[in-house]
Structures are given as C-alpha cells and as structure tokens.
Amino acid sequence: MTTPTSRSAGPPASAAGGRPRDARIDDAVRRAVVEILNEAGYSGLTMEAAAARAGTTKPAIRRRWRSRQHLVVDALATTVGTAPTPDTGCTHCDLVAGISTLSEAFTTALGRRALPALVADLAGDPALERHFFELFFHPRRATTAAALRRGIDRGDLRPDIDIDLLLDMLASTTYYRVLFGHLPVTPDLAEDVVAVILSGVATGQWRGRHPSG
Question: Which of 21, 56, 104, 150 has its CA 20 to 30 A from that of 27?
Fold first, then answer.
C-alpha cells in the first residue's frame, strides 16, 4: 500500500506571504513525536521535548501545529495512515486489507498509548475534534465507504445496505479493543470481522464464490 501523505494543523508559511516552510523540519518533528510517544507515552510528549528531539525550536513547532494534541493527531495520521482501501477487484480482499492497516497500527505502542488519551482530550476541545476528524478519521472512513460502493456495483453486496452502519461495524471492534484493552488486536481480527459482516450483507452471487462466507 502507498505511504499516506500527512498534513499539519495549519497552512504553510508561504501561504501567508512568509518564507516557504522547510519540509525537513516537518519530517523531523513527526519522527520525533512518534519516537517520544512510543518511548514515554502521551503524557511524556511536550513541545519542548519534540523540539529538542527534532533539532528545532518550540516556536518553529508552534508555527506548524497549534498544540501538543495536534502533534498527536498528525502522528496518528502519519503512522496509522490515511492511504486508500485498495481496489483489487475483490470486495472481501479490499475490506480485509483496509481494516488490517488499522489493526496493525494499533498493535504498536503509539496506537495503544496515544489513542485513548487523545479521545479523552477531543471531548473538551471542539476545534481539536474537528481536526482529528478532518485529518485522520474521515479520510480513512471515506476510502472504506468507496470500497463498499464498489462491492455494490460488482453485485457482491446488497444495494440496500446501510453504508454508515457497516463502516462503524467494520472498524469498531479494533477501536473498542484499543480503547478498553479487554482483548488483544490480533492479526486475524480484520479477516474475522469482515467475514462476519459479509455473511449478513453479501448477495447470492458473492456467496457462490465464497461458500464458507
């Protein structure tokens, strides 16, 4: 799969008439944030620590990201990714591949440490919540929605399916296990979730090609 392209929380300096933004600083800060989150967790990340690790300054980071929480959103988008769910010509394969990227990312220290704490901060900060949805949540959701629509066009899925409900069902098991930690995010989780869901919404045509579904 392709590597996702991440955006920061604000426009580049050149858009405001200043000097062009140095992409090397952006990349260094993103790497530093991921390293700190993996080593010290959400509470261990500060603007000062990120600046020191990236070899830049706190004002330089502030010009790019509004807050420590915005850094974490960017790190999630960079690490978990917003790459499209692939179009392989196989609805089952596309959905498994798309959900697998989520499951794989949340087995990392960053996913386990950052997401639960970040979700708590979203509740009290509408602007941060908007940023999280725009940069990370909605792009991933849109690509999976496109995969479901392709499945309808192929005749694999019933045309009357509730796409929003299916999107919630496909991703919710992974998010639920990451947030509460009651069960592990296993390598087979994406395959198992997709199989259960398709058993309820697939057409006879799809079942003919996947008799175990």
Answer: 104
For domain 81-209, is the CATH number 2.60.40.10?
no
List the domain boundaries for the chain.
13-76, 81-209
**Spatial CB neighbours of 43, under 8 Å, sequence gap ≥ 6:** 117
Check if the beta carbon of residue 28 is closer than 8 Å to that of residue 54: yes
pTM > 0.85: yes or no = no
Tens of pLDDT, residue by residue over 79-121, are: 776 677 889 999 999 999 989 888 887 777 777 778 889 999 9
- Does residue 166 contact residue 197 with C-beta atoms inside 8 Å? yes
Distance CA 55, CA 29 (A): 8
Signed CA dihedral, 208, 85, 142, 132: sign only: positive
